[in-house]
Amino acid sequence: MIVLTGASGGIGKVILPYLLDIDEVIGIFNKTQIQHLGRNNLVCEQLDLENSIEIRAFVNKFKNKFKSSRVIVIHFAAVKIDGLVANYSETDWDKMMSVNLKGNFLLTQALLPIMVNKKWGRIIHISSRGGECGDIGTIAYSTTKTGLIGMSRVLAKEYARFNITSNVLALGHFESGLYSKLSDTLKETLINQIPSKTLGQTADVVRAIKFLIESQCVNGATINIDGGI
Ligand SMILES: NC(=O)c1ccc[n+]([C@@H]2O[C@H](COP(=O)([O-])OP(=O)(O)OC[C@H]3O[C@@H](n4cnc5c(N)ncnc54)[C@H](OP(=O)(O)O)[C@@H]3O)[C@@H](O)[C@H]2O)c1
């Protein structure tokens, strides 16, 4: 059973059909309804990752489904509010931390007892190469995306004894989603960071997810999918 957050997002909705070829998927959205795709192994579920009560209720609602399957959580949900440090507002900072870090943590924490019980689990976090590089104007985004790498390593060490792995996919620039919302000037700057000057293919993301699901010893790793940035 794959729990995919950000399933309604630019990258999430492109990879969703491929994940459905691997396993049953609970596709999580917040404000944008997911198309059902006519697949009987897809459950679409609204969940606000800023709300800890909703997160607990979500895990409780599906607990029987989770108990009868191996659980994989893939954290694609994120927000990106950019701005220079000098003017960055506390409200925007709190929102970014709340969705990108705390939401990820709380959902993982709520699913861990089920994984521990099964003695198997896969946690996949999504970071960003731009975030890791610390691009100008991305103070909160970069903080959250590098924070996930620390979070993942701690999870890897605390839960390895239960056959639970936690890894990060650090994405470069992809055609869909957050990238497509940027200005033409910023898009040009970002594409020039890629040696091949070619945007990432979501097929590579799916291949990496399959690899992490199947691997036991790959744990606490960060895999760059960025064309060599
Ligand atoms: N696109 C790129 O080039 C790129 C590059 C590097 C890294 N990434 C990473 O890849 C991931 C997906 O990016 P994307 O481009 O697909 O982003 P996107 O199109 O902006 O989608 C963001 C997703 O997060 C969900 N979300 C936001 N707030 C939420 C909340 N409070 N509760 C639950 N869900 C919430 C959105 O749900 P609703 O729409 O339903 O509200 C949406 O499904 C992100 O983690 C991003 O950092 C993307």
From TrEMBL:
Q: SUPFAM superfamilies, per this entry?
A: NAD(P)-binding Rossmann-fold domains (SSF51735)
Q: Which family does it belong to?
A: Belongs to the short-chain dehydrogenases/reductases (SDR) family.
In its UniProt entry, the species of origin is given as candidate division WOR-1 bacterium RIFOXYC2_FULL_46_14
The membrane-spanning stretches of this chain are none
Question: What are its GO biological-process terms?
Answer: monocarboxylic acid metabolic process
- What InterPro entries has UniProt attached to this entry? NAD(P)-bd_dom_sf (IPR036291), Sc_DH/Rdtase_CS (IPR020904), SDR (IPR050259), SDR_fam (IPR002347)
- Name listed for the protein in its UniProt record: Short-chain dehydrogenase
